[in-house]
Specification:
It is a single chain. The protein is α+β, with helices and mostly antiparallel strands and about 425 residues long. The protein folds into 2 domains: about 1-110 and about 290-340, no CATH class; about 115-150 and about 165-285 and about 360-385, Cytochrome P450 (Cytochrome p450, Orthogonal Bundle), CATH 1.10.630.10. It has 17 helices and 12 strands. A 5-stranded mixed beta sheet has the order 1-2-8-5-3. A 3-stranded antiparallel beta sheet has the order 4-12-9. Strands 6-7 form a two-stranded antiparallel sheet. Strand 1 (about 70-75) and strand 2 form a beta hairpin. The termini are far apart.
C-alpha cells in the first residue's frame, strides 16, 4: 500500500471514530422531558454559548422554549429551570441535591470528607446557634472589622489607590470571622488552626483519633470557605456599586451619620436594624449579583416531574436561571434591569428575607441559614467604611463585573479611598 493510500485510510478511520463517538454521546431526550435546544456543532453542543454568550443565550432560549428547557454542554444534558419552576427544586430536597462538586473539586480540597450533606447539616446547626447570639457577637464583629480596616486600608489623608479589592475584603472579613468561629484567644495566634467547642462536643469527636480530628478540621475549612469568600464577594460588589454612584454614597453617609451619633459609635443589633437605606442598597447589590445560573442541582430520585408536566430523569443536572428571577418585570416593574439602591426602603422587604422572586440565598427550609449573620456583617462593615472614607472608582465610572460563562465576579479595577473631611 502506497503512502497516499495509507494516509487516506487513516483519514477514513478517523472520521468513522468521530462518527461513532458522536453517536455514543448524542443526547437522548425522553418524551416528557423539557425540549432540547437545537445546536449545530456536534459534541460541543451549546458549550461555546454557555461560556461566551451566557446572558443573551439563556434569555433567547427562555423566549423560544419556555420556562424549562435543556442544553447540551460538556458532553452532557443540563436542564435549565426558570422562575415558575425554580422554587420546586428548592422545596423538593429529597429529589434534588446541591451539586457543587460538579464545578469545584471538593473531594480533592477536603480529602477527609466523604459525605458533604452531613457536613452541610452540621454547619447549618452551628450557624443557627451563632445567629441566635448575633447581638452578643456584634461588639466582637465591630472591634475586629475596625482593626482590619485600620490594618489593611489605614489612614487615607492622602488618597490611596487599591486594586485587588476582593482580596482586601477577604483579609478584613477574616479577622472578625476567626474571632467568632474559633474564639479570640485562638484567633490571636495567626499560625494556629483549631476547631470550635461545637465540633469538639460532637459525639464522634476524639482527639486521640487523627482521622476524626482531621475530619473536623476539614469541616471547619468548609464553613470558612463558604462564609468568608461569599461574604467578601458581596461586600466587594457593594463597594464598587457605591464607588460608581457618588449620589448614593452621600445619601447613605447621611443615614450612617445619624445612626453613629445616636449610638456614639458603638453599634448594636437594633442600630443595624435601623439602617433601612443601607439594607435596601445591600438587597439591590445582591439582586444585581449577575450570576446568570446558580445553585446547580442533581436529580437524586428515579425521576422528578414538575407541575408543568415536564419530567427529568435521575442523575440529570438541573441549573437555576437566576436572571429570570432577579430581573423579573412582574416582580420588580419595568425598571427591573436598573440598579435602584433605595428600591426596597418602604417595601418591608429586608435583604435577608427569602421569597420566590429573591432567591439569592436559595429557598424553602434549606435556604442559607447564615444569611442573617452575613447581611448583619455586610451592613456593619459598609457602615464603617462609609463613615470613614469617600470611595470612588479610578475611572470615575461604574465598573462592570467580570464573567466566566454564567458566573459573575466582582470588577478588577482600582478604587480610590480618601478620608472623610
Amino acid at each position: 500500500m502506497d503512502e497516499v493510500s495509507t494516509e487516506f485510510l487513516a483519514y477514513i478511520i478517523g472520521i468513522i471514530i468521530l462518527i461513532i463517538f458522536y453517536i455514543i454521546k448524542l443526547p437522548r431526550i425522553g418524551a416528557n422531558e423539557p425540549p432540547l435546544v437545537p445546536y449545530t456543532i456536534p459534541i460541543l453542543g451549546h458549550t461555546y454559548n454557555y461560556f461566551f454568550n451566557a446572558r443573551n443565550f439563556f434569555k433567547k432560549c427562555k423566549e423560544q422554549y419556555g420556562e424549562c428547557f435543556s442544553i447540551y454542554v460538556f458532553g452532557r444534558v443540563m436542564t435549565i429551570v426558570s422562575r415558575s419552576s425554580l422554587n420546586e427544586v428548592f422545596i423538593n430536597h429529597k429529589d434534588f441535591k446541591l451539586s457543587l462538586s460538579e464545578f469545584l473539586p471538593f473531594d480533592m480540597l477536603f480529602e477527609n470528607i466523604s459525605d458533604f450533606d452531613k457536613v452541610t447539616q452540621l454547619n447549618a446547626k452551628l450557624v443557627k446557634e451563632i445567629t441566635g447570639k448575633i447581638d452578643s457577637y456584634t461588639s466582637i464583629m465591630q472591634k475586629y472589622l475596625l482593626e482590619g480596616i485600620d490594618k489593611f486600608i489605614g489612614d487615607c489623608k492622602d488618597p490611596k489607590e487599591f486594586l485587588s479589592i476582593w482580596e482586601l475584603m477577604n483579609h478584613i472579613i477574616a479577622l472578625p470571622m476567626a474571632n467568632i468561629i474559633v474564639g479570640e484567644e485562638v484567633a490571636s495566634h495567626e499560625d494556629v488552626n483549631d476547631t470550635l467547642e461545637f465540633y469538639t462536643s460532637q459525639p464522634d469527636f476524639d482527639y486521640s483519633n487523627p482521622k476524626i480530628f482531621h475530619y473536623y478540621i476539614d469541616v471547619l475549612f468548609v464553613l470558612i470557605f463558604g462564609s468568608v469568600g461569599t461574604t467578601s464577594e458581596i461586600i466587594t460588589n457593594g463597594i464598587f456599586d457605591l464607588a460608581g454612584r457618588p449620589e448614593c454614597l452621600n445619601e447613605l453617609y447621611e443615614e450612617a451619620m445619624i445612626i453613629d451619633k445616636e449610638c456614639n459609635g458603638s453599634i448594636t443589633l437594633p442600630d443595624v436594624q435601623k439602617m433601612k437605606k443601607l439594607d435596601s442598597f445591600v438587597k439591590e447589590v445582591l439582586r444585581h449579583s449577575d450570576d446568570t445560573l446558580k445553585f446547580l442541582h442533581k436529580v437524586t430520585s428515579e425521576s422528578f416531574t414538575f407541575s408543568n408536566g415536564y419530567t427529568v430523569p435521575k442523575g440529570r443536572r438541573v441549573n437555576l436561571y437566576m436572571d429570570d428571577v432577579l430581573k423579573s418585570k412582574d416582580a420588580y416593574g419595568d425598571d427591573a434591569e436598573e440598579f435602584k439602591p433605595f428600591r426596597f426602603v418602604n417595601a418591608n422587604s429586608s435583604a435577608s428575607k427569602v421569597d420566590r422572586n429573591y432567591a439569592v440565598f436559595g429557598g424553602g427550609k434549606h435556604a442559607c441559614p447564615g444569611r442573617f449573620f452575613a447581611i448583619h456583617e455586610i451592613k456593619l462593615i459598609l457602615h464603617k467604611l462609609i463613615l470613614k472614607y469617600n470611595i470612588k472608582t479610578k475611572s470615575g465610572k461604574i465598573e462592570n463585573k467580570k464573567y466566566i460563562g454564567p458566573i459573575s465576579l466582582p470588577p478588577k479595577k482600582a478604587l480610590i479611598f480618601e478620608n472623610r473631611k
